[in-house]
Each structure stands twice: as structure tokens, then as C-alpha cells.
Amino acid sequence: MLSKILSVTGRPGLYKLISTGKNLNIVESLGDGKRMPVYVHEKVVALSDVSIYTNDGDTPLRDVLKRMKEKENGGKASVATKASGSELFTYLKEVLPDYSRESVYASDVKKIISWYNILIENGVDLEEEENLVTEETASPSAEEAEQE
Questions:
Q1: Predicted TM-score of the model (pTM)
Q2: Per-residue pLDDT band at 139 (split at 50, 70, 90)
Q3: Which numeric CATH code is attached to 2-47+129-141?
């Protein structure tokens, strides 16, 4: 399911891919359900393409979100996105102990927690595996995706 959930640069929240066309995609906001066009020139990242830097390489966002869900027993994150940097990193360390201290920033952790809460509120299945990736959601580097 995460391959159909998108982050659009410059727009808050997450979006579900509804349909694709030649020059645009139609997406639906997970926040308010409004549909809107997203044009090819806009930077779009599927959550299935995002990964978190670790000391041994990368860990897919899907795995991090699953660990968060296990930690929170399927509920919302116990730490707020407005928490201090040290609280955010303490939380991330509980979920992903080997995250790269040099490459992961507090803003990245805030975004992960925010995305997790949105996905849980909307009942998105984090367990479902998909192999579908469209050209419009082609993978940027993990660094680009994390630093949006």
C-alpha cells in the first residue's frame, strides 16, 4: 500500500494515488479527502521508496513504520512531532537503534512520526507488500526524500 501513498514537495500531509495520466496524477489527501492534480514537474515520492540511513546502509521506511506500530501497539506515536530533538532521537533509537547519527536529522524524525500518525489515523495497512512503482513515483535518493 505504501507505493500508492505519496509525499508531494511543498504540500503538507500525505496523498493517495487515485489515477495517473500522461502529464499528471490525481491524488487524494489523506487529511481531508480532497482530490487534486499533481503535475509531472512536481517532486513526488512514494513512501515505499523512502529509506532511513543506518550505520550498515539503509532501512526501508516500511520496516521503521512496522516497528513503530509494534512499539505503539497499533496506536499513534507516543512522542509528539513538536517534541525536542533529544526526545525525537530517543524515540527513534528505541525503534531503529542503528540509525546513522550523522545523516538523520530531527526534521526527518518529525516527518516519520507525522507520516506514521497520518497512516494510522487512516487505517493504511503497513503490512501489505507491493511491487508496483510507476514512472511518476520513481525513486529519488533516500537523502532527497528524507530532507523534504
A1: 0.80
A2: very low
A3: 2.30.30.730
